UniProtKB/TrEMBL annotation, chain B:
PANTHER family: PYRUVATE-FLAVODOXIN OXIDOREDUCTASE-RELATED. GO terms for biological process: carboxylic acid metabolic process; response to oxidative stress. Residues 259-357 form the Pyruvate:ferredoxin oxidoreductase core domain. This is Pyruvate ferredoxin oxidoreductase. It holds the Pfam family PFOR_II. Residues 15-219 form the Pyruvate flavodoxin/ferredoxin oxidoreductase pyrimidine binding domain. Keywords: Oxidoreductase, Pyruvate. The gene is porA. It comes from the Bacteria. GO terms for molecular function: oxidoreductase activity, acting on the aldehyde or oxo group of donors. InterPro entries: PFOR_II, Pyruvate:ferred/Flavod_OxRd, Pyrv_Fd/Flavodoxin_OxRdtase_N, THDP-binding, Transketo_C/PFOR_II.
Length: 541, 420, 348
């Protein structure tokens, strides 16, 4: 068009004016560490796999998940999900049900028969793994995925360790466990059962192993000295729970008292109820607040009729009864005796006071350091003996399946480096995406999907799974509750809110980039980024 | 077709023949009858493809025309006096944007004191706004000038104001030759805008221009308007050929051959002046008239040519640039400045606020100019006694109140209200 | 699982727990959402948005008006199939977009004067009608050009029901000329012409006008207020307005970091707070009747909104709240009652 001079201008000609020169602060896309990932003992990239799940790519999500943890169906049932405790969504409504989505993915993988893709290149290195518990299975899986050849030697008759012999079926159906173990075996991991390693060095030598990962667990029940009459029936928790796997169910009687305050005590009490006990009483020397067991498990137990005797210690046990002493907490929170006694009726007493590790296989291994009944390991999970790594309950840590799986992964990566004569250097951790880094306004209110729980009536008399899984629609809903803390989820906010159109959208999956020719550095993008994935940096002028 | 018709209606018919597409109407005396006439033509369907918009003010009237014109429609509006002032900002804007809007100005005095009668104060107030300003002597000329105006505006992409004397022309019933549609169509092609708001070919119109280019923008506006000095005679000749009569032009002369005294004026007063000249010629006075049609652009060259031989030039104008005198006289002065034999210039202010301009007053004026020339502007038929008394009173009393009120009071007291 | 009543929950989650595909739990209020189809996303989320107001303009950092204008015009461009002309009043938006020799606009755009945008748009619309074109017309301006100097033309355009969508970008003052009071400046706000001095510092209570209500009184087909803090609501309203012929009015609250004395990064936050405290009611009206009010999502005391802005700093001097804070809260409360701003939003 023929334009009047100066009065009329060609459209879009302001692109010649690079307003980026005004900038004193520069926005940058960053990745921050989501609190869930930060809290996960297994080192899962939870935010990463949730982002795939919420898009409906369940297989992709499962594959992302299993890069760190080969047991999602198990973990989705037994993990105490510290991720959910850390979840920023709790600051909005309720934390994301990460654990239930994990289980959904695990169950779907089993149902669909998804298998791990074995590595194409093999290292030819052999690694001995002692113990087919969560740590051993995890280590073997990761070693296999890294191209090595692991062999698991398991003292017991079946895989799973405490997952099988310590966790009741109503929390972890054995088919689930078996399916996930089978998938690891299918990857080329050899498991030898009833094969207790008693001389580590000899076993390694004879088998030609280049390294070893020890994860024998803690199966020896701790005993407290309690005066007991001849006819008194005193059992330990490990024994009771393990015998649940056999043909003969333990006979506990109508009134069962469980002594202890951990999750194992709850497991035993709930098992006793299922075995027909009219009363299952847990005697614990401190208070509910001080109890190491997880609150949700306590709640489930209480719903099922398990009773609690707080601030009490067992003084002695007779046939059919026992005597407890009332305690009070002192200023430091330690229980102190009061001398006040009470008698409870009990057909049996089960001690759930913790477990010790059987360290006999380490005899003769030089350089090892044992403290407080566990093997000391370095940050790389290696014991004092070169090439001998250890993890799970036999190493110092919290004794959970998730921690064990994490140990297995960490050990495998360090063993891999060790076998190549290198030192494993984990990637530096990003800054934590804490709640104040988010702009929570943009997240709609969406209460956590409550996993359906079995009707109480059925639950108390059967060993069916108490907590049912999510179906696809509510798993998707739950996955979509994820805030994607610290990592761009392509919400287009930066692209939309920039007054200078200085954000370039790169298309699905590719995120965005800043057009610094025009970005004036106002910072609206960073303020309005829901998930805290933009940081303003001072511009060098 | 010859019609005995009111001037306003004749103009309305002429404007309708120009096929305007958007007409903005806001009533103000004395232009009201023009837009009323157009309103009838649109409402009755005689004028098709035309949006007639009743706006809420003159400012909106011209603003609507600006929008319509920028969007490629042939736009027309009309106003007068206070209305022109109320739209003043838009008057400048339409010119600055180069929009070929045609506007009729029913010339009327500007208050205060409020006055609905004819003079040229309104047109003069916008003389530097960038519009072409054409003054009609007769209603026939008013008809012709509107048709010329659309052609000129669109050729130059510049707004044109056709100035017609309020009441004297707008309300006069005369025999007027209204052209045929085919004649107008032959002269005026459809509007083909130089620039237009078009989604197919977008542009930003009305940018902010700073010191780096503002002078050039103004120079180009001036240059463009000077093009009209060539186009007005050319288009007038073309139009005259179609209509079979002389019309328009930059100026018209009457009996200036051998004239020693030449009177210059604009608008309908030229008729009375011609009569006076005829009268004086009969008495042997060598006198003639120049009727200025195009006030903007100001035809310096053409005026120089017709005034070159005069000894005395008397400028009769219907407005006063308070504090200076006659704006038209000032402009004529510029045209005489470089003449070899520079004639004497005599400035007269006449007909303000509708004051009648009688022939004998004019004759006296023309004669005095030669025999007893005055300095500065001469106010024709000024009531010296009234102003003398008021000046005297004001000198005595510091806070004298409204001069207009005082004069009216004095006139009433002395029963000296001027008679029609 | 802590709630015993949950035992009644069936194996499938109840209907309300299943997500509606409107927007998801994540990014419910964000510009876009990768989880929904392209067609359901906002215009601003699209790579193909017109960027009718493109980069290189000279608005201040964090300019709410630049944002609001792109939001509105891009939405109108999509709604009209890019067959759109914009008329602009004098003001910040005009000055920062079209200083010779560059313009940031990408659609046919006309600036005439400060006070005549509505009338000029009427003329453009008349031209389109007479030419038989379907091209739609928008007039836009700031609050000064709309509620003050342009008000007469605006009212004329309304009463004639001219086919123009007028969009007012309300930043509550004459920002282009250096932050002076307009009739849209809220009470107590400090401006260059209402300094924070004397017995009644800042803008005087009981003055000013709320043009949306006046627009409603013209019985025009559509009136709405909107905010840059709620893009979805804004775009919906523009699209709705574009589907209607006749006079329409949308007033968008656009914070001005410079004029309000706030960090440039807080622009959207301020807009959000203005809505969430009830000071800026977001509603729509059709043919003279209010038909919808956008509910407050997370109500905040107006104090939190005021505290973010230096123009209200005199209300918090010496660590004590001036009694005027309570008076402004009362205004918010009155808005909440008048428009019914609390409660659940009905489906729109």
């Amino acid at each position: 068009m023929d334009h009047d001079f100066a009065v009329t201008l060609d459209v879009g000609s302001s692109l010649a004016n690079h307003t980026g020169s005004w900038r004193t602060f520069r926005p940058e896309y960053v990745h921050r560490l989501p609190p869930c990932n930060h809290a996960c003992p297994a080192g899962e990239d939870i935010q990463g796999w949730l982002s795939l799940a919420e898009a409906g790519d369940y297989e992709g999500a499962w594959r992302a998940l299993t890069r760190n943890n080969p047991l999602p169906a198990v973990m989705g049932r037994v993990c105490y999900h510290p991720c959910e405790t850390a979840c920023n969504r709790a600051g909005i409504d309720a934390s994301v049900g990460i654990n239930s989505v994990e289980r959904f993915l695990g169950d779907m993988a089993i149902a669909k028969g998804w298998a791990f893709a074995p590595p194409t290149a093999k290292s030819g290195k052999k690694v001995l793994v002692v113990g087919a518990g969560p740590a051993g299975l995890s280590a073997a899986y990761h070693l296999a995925m890294l191209g090595h050849s692991p062999t698991i030697k398991e003292a017991g008759p079946a895989p799973g360790g405490m997952m099988r012999f310590g966790i009741p079926k109503y929390r972890l159906p054995r088919e689930t466990l078996d399916a996930e173990v089978a998938r690891i075996v299918a990857l080329g991991v050899a498991i030898e059962y009833d094969c207790k390693v008693s001389d580590l060095r000899a076993t390694m030598r004879e088998g030609g192993f280049d390294a070893a990962f020890l994860a024998v667990g803690a199966h020896i029940a701790k005993r407290a000295y309690i005066p007991a009459g001849e006819a008194a029936k005193v059992l330990d928790a490990v024994q009771v729970l393990a015998s649940m796997e056999g043909e003969d169910r333990p006979l506990l009687g109508r009134r069962v008292v469980v002594y202890g305050g951990g999750n194992t005590a709850l497991d035993v009490a709930r098992t006793a109820k299922r075995l027909g006990a009219e009363e299952a009483i847990i005697v614990y020397r401190r208070t509910r607040e001080k109890m190491p067991a997880h609150d949700f498990e306590l709640e489930e137990a209480l719903e099922e009729g398990v009773m609690m005797k707080w601030l009490s210690t067992i003084k002695n046990v007779e046939a059919g009864s026992l005597t407890v002493e009332k305690m009070v907490l002192d200023e430091k929170g330690f229980p102190q005796p009061t001398g006040e006694l009470e008698t409870l009726e009990a057909d049996s007493v089960v001690l759930a006071l913790g477990q010790d590790v059987d360290l006999s296989l380490l005899n003769g291994v030089e350089g090892l350091k044992i403290e407080k009944g566990v093997v000391q390991v370095g940050a790389n999970m290696m014991t004092g003996a070169a090439g001998v790594f250890a993890g799970g309950d036999m190493a110092p840590s919290e004794r959970t399946v998730t921690v064990a799986v994490g140990h297995g992964k960490k050990a495998a990566r360090n063993i891999d480096a060790f076998l190549r004569g290198e030192v494993y250097a984990p990637a530096p951790k990003h800054e934590l995406a804490s709640f104040e880094k988010l702009n929570a306004w943009y997240y709609g209110e969406a209460p956590k999907t409550v996993r359906p729980t079995l009707e109480l009536a059925r639950r108390s008399s059967t060993f069916e799974e108490v907590v049912a899984g999510l179906d696809e629609s509510n798993a998707l809903y739950e996955a979509r509750r994820c805030l994607s803390c610290g990592n761009c989820f392509e919400c287009d906010n930066c692209y939309g809110v920039c007054p200078d159109n200085a954000v370039i959208k790169l298309g699905p999956g590719n995120g965005f980039k800043f057009n610094y020719d025009f970005c004036k550095g106002c910072g609206v993008c960073a303020s309005e980024c829901p998930c805290g994935a933009i940081r303003m940096e001072p511009e060098e002028i | 077709m010859l019609k005995q018709i009111e001037g306003s209606h004749a103009m309305a018919e002429a404007i309708a023949l120009c096929r305007p597409e958007v007409i903005c109407a806001y009533p103000i005396t004395p232009q009201t009858h023009i837009v009323e006439g157009l309103g009838e033509l649109v409402k009755s369907g005689e004028l098709e493809n035309c949006e007639f918009i009743n706006v809420e003010s003159e400012f909106a009237a011209l603003s609507v025309a600006i929008g319509a014109s920028a969007a490629g429609a042939r736009a027309y509006t009309a106003t007068a006096s206070q209305g022109l002032l109320f739209m003043a900002e838009a008057v400048y804007n339409a010119a600055g944007l180069g929009l070929p809007i045609v506007m009729t100005l029913g010339n009327r005095a500007i208050g205060a004191p409020i006055n609905i009668w004819n003079d040229h104060s309104d047109a003069m107030s916008m003389r530097d706004a960038g519009w072409i300003q054409l003054f009609a002597e007769t209603n026939q000329e008013a008809v012709d000038l509107h048709i010329l105006a659309f052609r000129l505006a669109e050729e130059l992409s510049m707004p044109v104001m056709v100035c017609v004397d309020g009441f004297i022309l707008t309300h006069a019933f005369e025999r007027i030759d209204i052209p045929e549609q085919a004649q107008v169509d032959a002269f005026l092609p459809p509007y083909d805008p130089v620039q237009v708001l078009d989604p197919e070919n977008p542009a930003s119109i009305g940018a902010m221009v700073g010191p780096e280019a503002f002078t050039e923008v103004r120079f180009l506006a001036h240059y463009k308007q000077r093009q009209a000095l060539r186009l007005i005679p050319a288009f007038s000749a073309e139009l005259g050929k179609i209509f079979g009569r002389a019309t328009g032009g930059l100026l018209r002369t009457y009996r200036i051959e051998d004239a020693e005294t030449v009177v210059v004026a604009m608008g309908s007063i030229c008729g009375t002046i011609k009569d006076t000249v005829d009268e004086m010629r009969e008495d042997g006075v060598k006198i003639g008239v120049v009727c200025l049609v195009s006030f903007r652009p100001f035809p310096v060259e053409a005026l120089g040519e017709v005034l070159a031989e005069a000894k005395d030039v008397v400028v009769v104008e219907k407005s006063i640039a308070v504090g200076v005198g006659g704006a038209l006289a000032d402009n004529i002065e510029g045209a005489l400045r470089n003449l070899e034999k520079r004639p004497r210039l005599h400035s007269a202010i006449a007909g303000l606020g509708g004051r009648p301009i009688p022939r004998d007053s004019l004759r006296r004026l023309f004669e005095t100019a030669v025999t007893d020339p005055w300095e500065g502007p001469h106010f024709l038929d000024l009531n010296d006694r009234v102003v003398g008394r008021e000046i005297h009173r004001v000198r005595k009393v510091r806070r004298s109140g409204s001069t207009a009120e005082n004069i009216l009071r004095q006139l009433a007291l002395t029963s000296q209200l001027p008679q029609d | 699982m802590t709630d015993v009543q949950m035992t009644d929950v069936p194996a499938l989650a109840p209907d309300e727990a299943q997500q509606k595909l409107k927007f998801y739990q994540k990014g419910t209020f964000t510009v876009g959402n990768r989880l929904i189809s392209e067609g359901e996303r906002s215009v601003q989320a699209s790579q193909a948005r017109s960027n009718a107001l493109t980069s290189g303009h000279r608005a201040c950092q964090g300019c709410g008006e630049a944002l609001g204008a792109r939001y509105a015009i891009d939405a109108a461009m999509r709604a009209s199939g890019n067959d759109l002309i914009a008329v602009n009043a004098t003001g910040c938006l005009e000055v920062f977009t079209t200083p010779y020799p560059e313009t940031s606009w990408q659609l046919p755009w006309l600036h005439s004067l400060f006070g005549n945008a509505a009338a000029v748009a009427t003329g453009v619309a008349a031209a389109m009608r007479v030419k038989g074109k379907k091209t739609r017309v928008i007039a836009q301006g700031g609050d000064g050009g709309t509620t003050d100097i342009g008000f007469q033309c605006l009212s004329g355009m309304f009463e004639r029901n001219d086919d123009v969508l007028y969009i007012c970008y309300d930043n509550e003052g004459y920002m282009n000329t250096g932050v002076q009071r307009s009739s849209a400046t809220p009470p107590a706000a400090r401006t260059a012409t209402t300094p924070a001095l004397g017995p009644e510092p800042g803008n005087v209570f009981g003055t000013g006008k709320f043009v949306p209500k006046i627009a409603v009184a013209h019985n025009i087909p559509y009136v709405a207020t909107a905010t840059v803090a709620d893009l979805h609501d804004l775009e919906r309203k523009v699209v709705k307005a574009m589907a209607i012929h006749g006079a329409r009015y949308i007033q968008i609250n656009v914070p001005c970091p410079l004029g309000w004395g706030a960090p440039s990064c807080d622009t959207i936050k301020l807009a959000r707070f203005a809505v969430e405290c009830g000071l800026y009611p977001i509603f729509e009206a059709e043919h003279g009747r209010v038909t919808h009010a956008r509910k407050i999502r997370k109500q905040i005391p107006v104090r939190e909104y005021l505290k973010l802005q230096k123009r209200y700093a005199h209300l918090f001097r010496g660590g004590v709240d001036d009694p005027r804070v309570a008076r402004i809260q009362a205004i918010c409360d009155a808005h909440i009652a008048e428009y019914g701003l609390l409660g659940d939003d009905e489906e729109v």
